[in-house]
What does this fold into?
Amino acid sequence: MDISLSQIRGIGPARVKAFEAAGIRTVRELTMFLPREYRDLSSPVPLATLKPGEAAAVRVRVAGEVSERRAKRLLITKLYVTDDTDTVQVVWYNQPWLKKQMPAGRELLLYGKAEFRQGYLSLISPTIEQDQGLIPVYRSIPGIPPKALRQSVEAALKLCEGQWPDELPEALRRRYGLCERNFAMRNAHFPDSPEALEAARRRIAFEELLLYQIALRLFRSSGRSGVKIAFDDGAAEAFWGRLPFEPTAAQRRVLSEVAADLRSERAMARMVQGDVGSGKTVIAFAAMALSHAGGWQSALMAPTEVLARQHYEAARRLLEPMGMKAGLLVGSLTPKQHRLAHEAIAAGEWDAVIGTHALITEGVEYRRLGLVVTDEQHRFGVRQRTLLSEKGDAPNVLVMSATPIPRTLSLILYGDLDISIVDELPPGRTPVSTRIVPEAKREAMYGFLRQEVKKGRQVYFVCPLVEESEAVEALPAEAVYEDLRTNRLSELRIELVHGRMKSADKDAALERFRAGEADVLVSTTVIEVGVNVPNATVMVIENAERFGLAQLHQLRGRVGRGAHASWCFLMAEPNSRLKFLASTTDGFKIAQKDMELRGPGELFGTRQSGTLSGGIGSLAGDAELLKLTHDEARSLMARPDAPDAQAVIALARQRFAERLKDVAIN
Ligand code: ADP
Ligand code: MG
It folds into this structure.
């Protein structure tokens, strides 16, 4: 099974290269490349039941003429399809061959998503299907067409057929009613039925989650002794006393947990979770002040330069009056500034060093580094921790999480970290009012926006990213920007920010918005991470049905940061999910609901990439499976010398150890 891919018919040298670039070298690895999702063609739905944003199969007839229209370089093909329940418009882009293939009356099996276009529900770029049943959809690999990919996987499975040794002990499989491995692999790719797929998913997810958690625990128990920081009992109170505001009870509690870690022999590995605005950054600064009080340097690492600068400004306001010197180290400094920064760090002149990844990748020599604070989005693995501590004990690590995560899930994803929760917001916040705005009310909303801008406030527009598989006329953010600028809000000053822009242009646009030189900022989700503009009071989220609840909550946290009343407008037809979001502002409740609705896989986010395999909807298992594997991992690790435990632990080491090195803390 560890044979080369070139053994498979149809895979020549060029494709071998393309697979290798995607990290797939052997037949075995190809079989482990699980589908991202499945097209369920087994039960087409009536047109009348199509819902915006949900993918579905429909069995329809072409009704009437096909129309073609050109818009710039785009060819737009439209036609109406019908079944006994309804008639719906279908839109395709740049598919010139379609027109001839769509005589009136032709029967079609279509699969795709419906969306509102100009107020009507339309099917956008559906695929035309021949097969029946559940069809695997793989993450696309550049250089391998989808059909060839599917055939290659099928051939790889044939080569491996019956050869998977079942590595999980049989007693374990029996106890949890897990299907046999060969069956699982075949059905994970080409399910015989929804039930067979579910059994396969459960088996593979169980194995993966169990081994992952054991691997995390292996790391944990091998954690090295850490820098022990001694400071006065009154140091925390002294810090709080110098703040311009009273800390919340939750902030006090979390800081005392952090303080106990800093003082102990073992290296701290702790994550702080809390809702947007719960005051996590202040806790980070407090920890840095404690470290300073004990005579140690600290570093704060942010995922982007904009955020690093923001933290640096805050540190100067807060920490310098307390006698700490803060310094900034980011990639864009001039060579001379770099040299000076390195010198100041090595000489111990800077007590609190704030920056981006440059903090650990440029061979910076610290004088006495006792604490590293990092943002969750930032990968910070065991390897990097070792980089920082080659000559001494491991520094203490504090991870600030941007999103609340349900407790059950935290235990599993971050089994290698202790967790502190900031479950209280500072007083005096004006909560964000959330409203669902259907298309019919769009005009009225623009009127409201104009009023807010007249009062001197600012507005965010957030648009979803386009999926690779969709051919759309323009990036939604660009289209919205053009529409606002030339049409709907043409009297206002509008800026655009999206992921394909140069980062200098992006920063400049953000800066103009922050400085109040623009009224409206249109963006993709790039603003999710940490822009702080207290004067912005309205957030409009286009196609809100496309976002997960936790993400919507994160986005709306960008407003409501100042003294003024704030609003979040979800542009979508009302549904129970969005109504739930409008009804609460508790991030943990929302995360819990998100997990119930979409499965925990969606919440795995970046942490999961590179560790757990990304297939089968990111192993979107159920909370129950997470709990079972968590308990089983604990029980196996409690008796590591028992033969069955030994076998599973060895397997976890082999499967995950290398991969976990880079992401153990992240
Ligand atoms: P988070 O990082 O958790 O989203 P921040 O630490 O950025 O939140 O805090 C948000 C804002 O609230 C900041 O302006 C901060 O100064 C302020 N803040 C933090 N803690 C308190 C408190 N206890 N009382 C009043 N304001 C606070
Ligand atoms: Mg923060």
